[in-house]
């Protein structure tokens, strides 16, 4: 059984009498602990690049540096600023997701638009992260079906590209990444990203979508991770009535799938007999 926390309060009640009021505050306490942890995590994540930046500013101000060293320091400072920028962007995305109304059914996006965007971003990221002379990733992007999906295009794209970006960031050079969209027999559709990366041990799987939860901290930081990507994916998935599935075998890679309900899908305009103009 889980421990329960009860708050007890004596309330004046009539003449000289008191009423004993008790309230279960377990959920309240848990929410408060989560809020405190979140603030501590955010502060820590911001403080690290800030400390590095302050150090470099001091160096630039006090030491006479030759132009080459100066350029190198400025490059490192740019890296830290961009890290903070990514973190702030992800935090804003999360807070918008938590505070905005659920995406309706009025905006429809062709699936191929989302798939093309994922492919372009994925190929670009893989190129940027690849060390010089390393064997490139084998990237395979499947064909998109002639269907549309309804919901927020921005949110859907951010969830899908987060999964692609993770696969690329965690898969070593020469590894393979396969991105697919397929219709399931029951009318649902599945977007999946399969990689041949390091895989994830079973004990981590249930915690991956927690904010700032990372299995491999250094790899996450090295490749520009904020620890918020899968938390964003989880929110978008829930807001679209979809399901996130993660299968992984340590040493043999991972597959992340988003399964969309049939109610969010329809055949593309041409197949519905409508003019696409
Ligand atoms: P991050 O910005 O650290 O990548 P995410 O929320 O996107 O944050 O992912 C949480 C953690 O899950 C990562 O730090 C990493 O340890 C693990 N992870 C996510 N995707 C993969 C993957 N494709 N292969 C191996 N580990 C992964």
Can I get a quick summary?
The chain is α+β, with helices and mostly antiparallel strands. It has helices spanning 26-62, 67-99, 111-129, 153-170, 202-205, 217-222, 229-239, and strands at 6-12, 18-24, 108-110, 138-141, 147-150, 176-183, 189-195, 243-249, 253-260, 265-267. It binds adenosine-5'-diphosphate (ADP).
Q: Give, in spatial order, the strands making up the sheet with the most strands.
A: 4-6-7-9-8
Bound molecules: adenosine-5'-diphosphate
How many β-strands, per DSSP?
10
Separation of termini? 60 Å
Number of H/I helices = 7
- As residue ranges, the low-confidence spans are none
Rg computed from alpha carbons, rounded to a whole number of angstroms: 24 Å
* Helicity, as a percent range: 40-55%
Strand count, sense and barrel status of the largest sheet are:
5 strands, mixed
Mean pLDDT: 92
Q: Which percent band covers the strand fraction?
A: 15-25%
Secondary-structure content class: alpha+beta
H-E order: EEHHEHEEHEEHHHEEE
Shape: globular
Function: Member of the two-component regulatory system PhoR/PhoB involved in the phosphate regulon genes expression. PhoR may function as a membrane-associated protein kinase that phosphorylates PhoB in response to environmental signals.
Subcellular location: Cell inner membrane
Catalytic activity: ATP + protein L-histidine = ADP + protein N-phospho-L-histidine
GO cellular component, one term: plasma membrane
